[in-house]
Amino acid sequence: MEKIPALGLGTWKAAPGEVTEAVKVAIDAGFRHFDCAYLYHNESEVGAGIQCKIKEGVVTRQDLFVVSKLWCTRHEKSLVKAACTKSLKALKLDYLDLYLMHWPMGFKPGEEDLPLDRNGMVLPSDTDFLDTWEAMEDLVVTGLVRAIGVSNFNHQQLERLLNKPNLRFKPLTNQVECHPYLTQKSLINFCQSRDVTVTAYRPLGGSSEGVALLDDPVIQRIAQKYNRSPAQIVIRFQIQRNVIVIPKSVTPTRIRENIQERVWRSALQATCAQRDGHWADFTVNVLFWVQVFDFELSERDMNDILDLDRNFRMCTLPTLIKPSHKAFPSEDGPLNESQD
User: Fold this and answer.
1) Rounded CA gap, 308 and 177, in Å?
2) Which residues contact 4 (CB under 8 A, 6 or more apart)?
Protein backbone atom coordinates (compact mmCIF):
# COMPACT_ATOMS: atom_id res chain seq x y z
CA MET A 1 0.00 0.00 0.00
CA GLU A 2 1.25 3.47 -0.86
CA LYS A 3 2.17 5.76 2.03
CA ILE A 4 0.90 9.32 1.77
CA PRO A 5 3.33 12.04 2.93
CA ALA A 6 1.93 13.67 6.06
CA LEU A 7 2.13 17.19 4.65
CA GLY A 8 1.14 18.27 1.15
CA LEU A 9 0.26 21.37 -0.83
CA GLY A 10 -3.37 21.90 -1.76
CA THR A 11 -4.08 23.57 -5.12
CA TRP A 12 -7.80 24.30 -4.80
CA LYS A 13 -8.69 27.84 -5.93
CA ALA A 14 -5.08 28.46 -6.92
CA ALA A 15 -5.36 30.64 -10.02
CA PRO A 16 -3.64 29.41 -13.20
CA GLY A 17 -1.31 32.40 -13.18
CA GLU A 18 -0.15 31.66 -9.64
CA VAL A 19 -0.10 27.91 -9.20
CA THR A 20 2.92 27.08 -11.37
CA GLU A 21 5.16 29.34 -9.32
CA ALA A 22 3.59 28.08 -6.10
CA VAL A 23 4.42 24.49 -7.04
CA LYS A 24 8.00 25.39 -7.92
CA VAL A 25 8.46 27.28 -4.64
CA ALA A 26 6.89 24.39 -2.75
CA ILE A 27 9.25 21.82 -4.30
CA ASP A 28 12.25 24.03 -3.55
CA ALA A 29 10.97 24.35 0.03
CA GLY A 30 10.67 20.58 0.46
CA PHE A 31 7.07 19.70 -0.41
CA ARG A 32 6.71 16.39 -2.26
CA HIS A 33 2.94 15.81 -1.93
CA PHE A 34 0.60 17.75 -4.25
CA ASP A 35 -3.18 17.58 -4.09
CA CYS A 36 -4.91 18.30 -7.40
CA ALA A 37 -8.30 17.76 -9.03
CA TYR A 38 -9.96 18.10 -12.41
CA LEU A 39 -12.47 20.51 -10.84
CA TYR A 40 -9.74 22.98 -9.94
CA HIS A 41 -9.03 23.61 -13.63
CA ASN A 42 -5.34 24.23 -13.00
CA GLU A 43 -3.77 20.80 -13.42
CA SER A 44 -1.84 21.93 -16.51
CA GLU A 45 -0.19 24.66 -14.44
CA VAL A 46 0.56 22.25 -11.61
CA GLY A 47 2.11 19.90 -14.14
CA ALA A 48 4.22 22.71 -15.58
CA GLY A 49 5.66 23.44 -12.15
CA ILE A 50 6.40 19.79 -11.49
CA GLN A 51 8.03 19.24 -14.88
CA CYS A 52 10.18 22.34 -14.45
CA LYS A 53 11.67 21.00 -11.23
CA ILE A 54 12.15 17.53 -12.67
CA LYS A 55 14.05 18.99 -15.63
CA GLU A 56 16.17 21.06 -13.25
CA GLY A 57 17.09 17.89 -11.41
CA VAL A 58 15.65 19.08 -8.11
CA VAL A 59 13.37 16.03 -7.91
CA THR A 60 12.51 12.92 -9.86
CA ARG A 61 8.99 11.69 -10.53
CA GLN A 62 9.51 8.95 -7.97
CA ASP A 63 10.19 11.56 -5.28
CA LEU A 64 6.70 13.04 -5.68
CA PHE A 65 3.26 11.98 -4.50
CA VAL A 66 0.64 13.44 -6.83
CA VAL A 67 -3.09 13.19 -6.18
CA SER A 68 -6.01 13.96 -8.46
CA LYS A 69 -9.75 13.43 -8.25
CA LEU A 70 -12.60 12.07 -10.34
CA TRP A 71 -15.31 14.68 -10.74
CA CYS A 72 -19.01 13.93 -10.20
CA THR A 73 -20.00 14.24 -13.87
CA ARG A 74 -17.68 11.32 -14.67
CA HIS A 75 -19.11 8.68 -12.33
CA GLU A 76 -20.42 6.43 -15.10
CA LYS A 77 -18.07 3.47 -15.40
CA SER A 78 -17.45 4.12 -19.08
CA LEU A 79 -16.21 7.67 -18.32
CA VAL A 80 -13.78 6.98 -15.48
CA LYS A 81 -10.70 5.97 -17.46
CA ALA A 82 -10.99 8.92 -19.85
CA ALA A 83 -11.35 11.31 -16.90
CA CYS A 84 -8.20 9.94 -15.28
CA THR A 85 -6.30 10.06 -18.57
CA LYS A 86 -7.31 13.70 -19.04
CA SER A 87 -5.86 14.62 -15.64
CA LEU A 88 -2.67 12.68 -16.41
CA LYS A 89 -2.26 14.51 -19.70
CA ALA A 90 -2.79 17.89 -18.02
CA LEU A 91 -0.30 17.05 -15.28
CA LYS A 92 2.15 15.62 -17.86
CA LEU A 93 2.48 12.41 -15.87
CA ASP A 94 2.37 8.70 -16.71
CA TYR A 95 0.64 7.70 -13.49
CA LEU A 96 -0.98 9.13 -10.37
CA ASP A 97 0.08 8.09 -6.91
CA LEU A 98 -3.51 8.44 -5.71
CA TYR A 99 -6.85 9.01 -7.43
CA LEU A 100 -9.85 9.99 -5.34
CA MET A 101 -13.58 9.96 -5.93
CA HIS A 102 -14.19 13.65 -5.27
CA TRP A 103 -17.72 13.23 -3.88
CA PRO A 104 -19.93 10.15 -3.45
CA MET A 105 -22.74 11.53 -5.61
CA GLY A 106 -22.79 11.46 -9.40
CA PHE A 107 -24.02 14.34 -11.56
CA LYS A 108 -25.49 14.32 -15.05
CA PRO A 109 -22.64 13.77 -17.53
CA GLY A 110 -21.66 16.72 -19.68
CA GLU A 111 -19.27 19.61 -20.00
CA GLU A 112 -20.73 21.63 -17.12
CA ASP A 113 -19.13 20.98 -13.76
CA LEU A 114 -22.41 21.66 -11.97
CA PRO A 115 -25.34 20.81 -14.25
CA LEU A 116 -28.30 22.61 -12.68
CA ASP A 117 -32.05 22.48 -13.16
CA ARG A 118 -34.21 25.62 -13.36
CA ASN A 119 -34.34 25.75 -9.57
CA GLY A 120 -30.58 25.82 -9.23
CA MET A 121 -30.30 22.24 -7.97
CA VAL A 122 -27.77 19.76 -9.29
CA LEU A 123 -29.04 17.29 -11.89
CA PRO A 124 -28.08 13.81 -10.66
CA SER A 125 -26.92 10.84 -12.65
CA ASP A 126 -28.32 7.39 -12.10
CA THR A 127 -25.01 6.03 -10.82
CA ASP A 128 -23.96 4.22 -7.67
CA PHE A 129 -20.55 5.01 -6.21
CA LEU A 130 -19.94 1.27 -5.76
CA ASP A 131 -20.04 0.87 -9.54
CA THR A 132 -17.81 3.91 -9.97
CA TRP A 133 -15.36 2.36 -7.54
CA GLU A 134 -15.09 -0.76 -9.70
CA ALA A 135 -13.96 1.38 -12.63
CA MET A 136 -11.44 3.10 -10.37
CA GLU A 137 -10.11 -0.29 -9.28
CA ASP A 138 -9.48 -1.03 -12.96
CA LEU A 139 -7.18 2.02 -13.05
CA VAL A 140 -4.99 0.40 -10.42
CA VAL A 141 -4.88 -2.86 -12.33
CA THR A 142 -3.84 -1.10 -15.54
CA GLY A 143 -1.18 0.97 -13.77
CA LEU A 144 -2.64 4.40 -14.43
CA VAL A 145 -2.85 4.97 -10.67
CA ARG A 146 -0.97 3.45 -7.76
CA ALA A 147 -3.81 3.72 -5.23
CA ILE A 148 -7.40 4.95 -4.98
CA GLY A 149 -9.41 6.63 -2.29
CA VAL A 150 -12.43 8.77 -1.56
CA SER A 151 -13.23 12.31 -0.59
CA ASN A 152 -16.20 13.75 1.25
CA PHE A 153 -17.55 10.36 2.33
CA ASN A 154 -19.38 10.11 5.65
CA HIS A 155 -19.35 7.14 8.02
CA GLN A 156 -22.25 5.32 6.35
CA GLN A 157 -20.98 5.82 2.81
CA LEU A 158 -17.47 4.67 3.66
CA GLU A 159 -18.76 1.64 5.55
CA ARG A 160 -20.92 0.68 2.56
CA LEU A 161 -17.85 0.84 0.32
CA LEU A 162 -15.68 -1.15 2.71
CA ASN A 163 -18.37 -3.83 2.94
CA LYS A 164 -18.77 -4.06 -0.83
CA PRO A 165 -18.73 -7.69 -2.06
CA ASN A 166 -15.63 -8.53 -4.12
CA LEU A 167 -13.83 -5.35 -3.11
CA ARG A 168 -10.44 -5.49 -4.83
CA PHE A 169 -8.82 -2.38 -3.36
CA LYS A 170 -9.66 -0.58 -0.14
CA PRO A 171 -9.67 3.22 -0.17
CA LEU A 172 -6.29 4.47 0.96
CA THR A 173 -7.70 7.69 2.41
CA ASN A 174 -10.85 9.72 2.97
CA GLN A 175 -10.17 13.37 2.26
CA VAL A 176 -12.52 15.67 4.16
CA GLU A 177 -12.79 19.23 5.38
CA CYS A 178 -11.18 19.28 8.81
CA HIS A 179 -9.92 22.06 11.07
CA PRO A 180 -10.35 23.10 14.72
CA TYR A 181 -13.84 24.48 14.00
CA LEU A 182 -14.77 21.14 12.36
CA THR A 183 -12.72 18.49 14.13
CA GLN A 184 -14.47 15.43 12.60
CA LYS A 185 -13.59 13.41 15.71
CA SER A 186 -16.05 10.55 15.23
CA LEU A 187 -15.37 10.22 11.50
CA ILE A 188 -11.60 10.17 12.04
CA ASN A 189 -11.95 7.51 14.72
CA PHE A 190 -14.04 5.37 12.37
CA CYS A 191 -11.68 5.74 9.41
CA GLN A 192 -8.59 4.96 11.43
CA SER A 193 -10.30 1.95 13.03
CA ARG A 194 -10.79 0.57 9.51
CA ASP A 195 -7.22 1.32 8.38
CA VAL A 196 -8.31 4.20 6.16
CA THR A 197 -6.21 7.32 6.58
CA VAL A 198 -7.79 10.75 6.80
CA THR A 199 -6.58 13.74 4.79
CA ALA A 200 -7.65 17.19 5.97
CA TYR A 201 -8.46 19.83 3.40
CA ARG A 202 -8.94 23.44 4.47
CA PRO A 203 -6.87 22.71 7.60
CA LEU A 204 -6.21 26.42 8.09
CA GLY A 205 -9.93 27.07 8.23
CA GLY A 206 -9.98 30.25 6.21
CA SER A 207 -12.69 32.81 6.83
CA SER A 208 -16.42 32.52 6.35
CA GLU A 209 -19.33 34.41 7.86
CA GLY A 210 -16.95 36.47 9.93
CA VAL A 211 -15.13 33.44 11.34
CA ALA A 212 -11.34 33.59 11.06
CA LEU A 213 -9.81 30.48 12.61
CA LEU A 214 -6.22 31.71 12.69
CA ASP A 215 -7.32 34.77 14.69
CA ASP A 216 -9.02 32.69 17.35
CA PRO A 217 -7.65 33.65 20.81
CA VAL A 218 -6.94 30.01 21.69
CA ILE A 219 -4.89 29.47 18.52
CA GLN A 220 -3.11 32.78 19.04
CA ARG A 221 -2.23 31.91 22.65
CA ILE A 222 -0.84 28.50 21.73
CA ALA A 223 1.13 29.98 18.82
CA GLN A 224 2.80 32.44 21.15
CA LYS A 225 3.57 29.67 23.65
CA TYR A 226 5.48 27.61 21.08
CA ASN A 227 6.86 30.56 19.11
CA ARG A 228 5.14 29.31 15.98
CA SER A 229 2.63 30.85 13.58
CA PRO A 230 -1.09 30.07 13.98
CA ALA A 231 -0.94 28.16 10.69
CA GLN A 232 1.84 25.92 12.00
CA ILE A 233 -0.16 25.25 15.17
CA VAL A 234 -3.27 24.05 13.34
CA ILE A 235 -1.15 21.92 11.00
CA ARG A 236 0.70 20.38 13.94
CA PHE A 237 -2.68 19.73 15.61
CA GLN A 238 -3.69 17.50 12.70
CA ILE A 239 -0.33 15.76 12.44
CA GLN A 240 -0.57 14.72 16.10
CA ARG A 241 -3.97 13.19 15.30
CA ASN A 242 -2.30 11.14 12.54
CA VAL A 243 -4.20 13.17 9.97
CA ILE A 244 -2.57 14.06 6.65
CA VAL A 245 -2.66 17.81 5.98
CA ILE A 246 -2.86 19.69 2.67
CA PRO A 247 -2.78 23.46 3.35
CA LYS A 248 -3.29 25.58 0.26
CA SER A 249 -1.22 28.66 -0.43
CA VAL A 250 0.21 30.46 -3.43
CA THR A 251 2.21 32.86 -1.26
CA PRO A 252 5.92 31.93 -1.15
CA THR A 253 6.39 33.13 2.44
CA ARG A 254 3.40 31.09 3.63
CA ILE A 255 4.56 27.99 1.74
CA ARG A 256 8.03 28.26 3.28
CA GLU A 257 6.46 28.87 6.68
CA ASN A 258 4.49 25.64 6.47
CA ILE A 259 7.60 23.64 5.66
CA GLN A 260 10.94 25.07 6.76
CA GLU A 261 13.50 25.56 4.03
CA ARG A 262 17.13 24.66 4.90
CA VAL A 263 18.75 22.26 7.35
CA TRP A 264 19.74 18.83 6.08
CA ARG A 265 19.39 16.59 3.05
CA SER A 266 19.10 12.84 3.18
CA ALA A 267 17.17 10.01 1.65
CA LEU A 268 15.27 7.08 3.06
CA GLN A 269 14.57 3.86 1.32
CA ALA A 270 11.10 2.54 2.15
CA THR A 271 9.23 -0.52 1.09
CA CYS A 272 5.63 -0.40 -0.02
CA ALA A 273 3.28 -3.07 1.23
CA GLN A 274 2.54 -5.87 -1.20
CA ARG A 275 0.31 -4.59 -3.97
CA ASP A 276 -1.38 -6.78 -6.51
CA GLY A 277 0.95 -9.68 -5.83
CA HIS A 278 4.18 -7.75 -6.25
CA TRP A 279 6.57 -5.96 -3.94
CA ALA A 280 7.68 -2.50 -4.93
CA ASP A 281 10.31 -0.19 -3.55
CA PHE A 282 10.10 3.55 -3.67
CA THR A 283 12.35 6.28 -2.46
CA VAL A 284 11.07 8.86 -0.04
CA ASN A 285 13.32 11.89 -0.26
CA VAL A 286 13.50 13.70 3.02
CA LEU A 287 15.09 16.85 1.67
CA PHE A 288 14.27 19.24 4.44
CA TRP A 289 13.57 19.22 8.11
CA VAL A 290 9.93 20.18 8.39
CA GLN A 291 9.33 22.82 11.00
CA VAL A 292 5.94 21.47 12.00
CA PHE A 293 7.61 18.19 12.94
CA ASP A 294 10.18 19.60 15.37
CA PHE A 295 7.84 20.36 18.27
CA GLU A 296 4.87 18.74 19.98
CA LEU A 297 1.69 20.22 21.38
CA SER A 298 0.87 19.25 24.95
CA GLU A 299 -2.18 17.13 25.70
CA ARG A 300 -3.85 20.16 27.27
CA ASP A 301 -3.21 22.29 24.20
CA MET A 302 -4.56 19.53 21.95
CA ASN A 303 -7.71 19.34 24.05
CA ASP A 304 -8.10 23.12 24.05
CA ILE A 305 -8.01 23.07 20.24
CA LEU A 306 -10.45 20.16 20.09
CA ASP A 307 -12.82 22.17 22.29
CA LEU A 308 -13.03 24.81 19.55
CA ASP A 309 -15.20 22.45 17.49
CA ARG A 310 -18.43 24.13 16.40
CA ASN A 311 -19.32 21.83 13.46
CA PHE A 312 -18.63 24.78 11.18
CA ARG A 313 -18.42 23.69 7.57
CA MET A 314 -16.96 25.97 4.91
CA CYS A 315 -17.38 23.71 1.89
CA THR A 316 -21.11 23.75 1.21
CA LEU A 317 -21.50 21.91 -2.10
CA PRO A 318 -23.99 19.40 -0.59
CA THR A 319 -26.57 22.18 -0.19
CA LEU A 320 -26.99 22.04 -3.98
CA ILE A 321 -27.88 18.36 -3.94
CA LYS A 322 -31.50 17.28 -4.16
CA PRO A 323 -32.72 15.26 -1.16
CA SER A 324 -33.97 12.68 -3.68
CA HIS A 325 -30.38 11.98 -4.85
CA LYS A 326 -29.47 8.39 -3.93
CA ALA A 327 -26.23 9.57 -2.33
CA PHE A 328 -27.85 12.42 -0.41
CA PRO A 329 -26.70 12.29 3.23
CA SER A 330 -28.84 10.69 5.87
CA GLU A 331 -29.64 12.61 9.02
CA ASP A 332 -26.24 11.82 10.51
CA GLY A 333 -24.51 12.00 7.14
CA PRO A 334 -22.32 14.51 5.32
CA LEU A 335 -24.08 17.71 6.26
CA ASN A 336 -23.76 16.83 9.91
CA GLU A 337 -21.00 14.32 10.41
CA SER A 338 -18.58 14.87 7.61
CA GLN A 339 -19.39 16.17 4.37
CA ASP A 340 -16.68 16.41 4.58
Assistant:
1) 15
2) 33, 65, 98, 172, 173, 197, 199, 244
Q: pTM of the prediction?
A: 0.85
**Beta-strand (E) ranges in the chain?**
9-10, 33-35, 65-70, 98-101, 148-151, 173-177, 197-201, 207-208, 211-212, 244-245, 266-271, 281-286
pLDDT computed for residue 317 by the predictor: 65
Catalytic amino acids? 40
Name the DSSP class of 104.
S
Which residues sit opposite 286 in a β-bridge?
Answer: 266
Alpha helices by DSSP H, 110-184? 129-142, 155-162
pLDDT for 330? 45
Which sign, positive or negative, has the C-alpha torsion 48, 51, 52, 58? positive
Q: Is 276 helix (H, G, I), strand (E, B) or coil?
A: coil
What length does the chain have?
Answer: 340
Task: Indicate the pLDDT class of residue 248, thresholds 50, 70 and 90.
Answer: confident
